[in-house]
Amino acid sequence: MTTPHTVAVLGLGRMGTAIATRLAAQGRDVVGWTRSGRTSDTVRTTADPNDAVSQAGLVLLALFDGPACRQVLDTVRASLRSDTIVLNTGTIAPAEAAELARRLGPSYVHAPVLGSVPAVATGGLRILAAAEQDALDRARPVLDALGTVRPVDGASAAAALKLVANHSLAGAVRALGDSLRQADALGLPRDEVLDILELGQLGGLVARKRPFLTDPPGTAAAEFTIGALAKDMALLAAASPAPLRSAGGLDDDPARAEADIAAAATAPGVADAVLEPLRAYVRGHATGDPAHFRDAFLPSARIEGIRDDAFVSWSLDEYCALFPGRPAPDEPARSRRVDAVDVHGTVATATMTLAHGAARFTDVFLLVRTDGRWLIANKAYHRHS
Ligand SMILES: NC(=O)c1ccc[n+]([C@@H]2O[C@H](COP(=O)([O-])OP(=O)(O)OC[C@H]3O[C@@H](n4cnc5c(N)ncnc54)[C@H](OP(=O)(O)O)[C@@H]3O)[C@@H](O)[C@H]2O)c1
User: What sections of the sequence does the record tag as coiled-coil (predicted)?
Assistant: First the structure.
């Protein structure tokens, strides 16, 4: 029997289970369904999504992605009345959200959420809700039980705003990982580092994710997975023409896709082997001995840049011939540091800053791993004036 107050929650993953539990705890009649057939300790479940939908006045989707939404809505099409509110909390592409809004008409509420499982439990989500006023009014009691509503004009815009929010989250996780690696390199105790980071710009993230960040990490269940964040960044990359760092770089280990995003901040830094040719290159500059450059570069390497306003492109032999076999007289005052290394399987890019007297250079390297060893395939440089 259909009851306007019955909520069908389709998708009992991390968010769906938390949402269904919260709504039930707030006195709602909730029926849950999930693809795997998993049941719940906290809400009534059914093995048939049509059964769930036909009982409900509001159908809440907590599914992984756009294709999952489409598949589930296709399955329940016959049971879905035209006036049943479909409230979609999933993070999907702007175009997918617009398509669902077109397909489901005025009863569709696109409502991606900011906040994770703990925020659901306290009704602390921030909900970006795009819908016609009547649908929004009808969904209001459920939305208010879950968090604070921020109306947004259009499903596509709500989906896009959610992706941008998660882009900043990906950046914060990356920044946190960089800070933890610097702290490790300085030999600082992890607990003390986390105490201090909690006081700073990433404080909220560190406080929420602290159990995942300790050394060794705790065993808390993942709340928001690396795989889900990677999905969101892939959606943003596909929707936006602006260059976007791949979320794959958050953690290149596919075995960790189900780990919490915080685990990406404790992933090991770049492997030592990829730094070896860069160290040999530094030794070449420090000693003036070109033999080190032959350890650093592939024989086919080209070294290129602008010198005296003209483009130069040296072979490795030509480059080595520039070095006299002894250190520069001002070597003690010179410095070189690696700024960034990004590894993509068997290729990598790196940048280095060299301060040679008054001259400062940025070197950009392309590296390849061949025969089990990393070597510099090419270098381009810029001399700062
Ligand atoms: N977790 C968070 O902190 C968080 C926060 C904000 C937004 N979100 C977004 O909310 C959505 C749900 O996230 P989650 O963390 O709860 O993910 P999750 O734990 O991986 O759960 C995903 C749910 O989708 C179902 N599903 C996946 N593919 C399906 C398909 N093809 N057909 C039918 N059902 C399918 C799964 O069913 P079975 O497991 O039963 O197979 C499961 O119920 C995602 O869009 C996510 O990006 C998550």
Answer: none
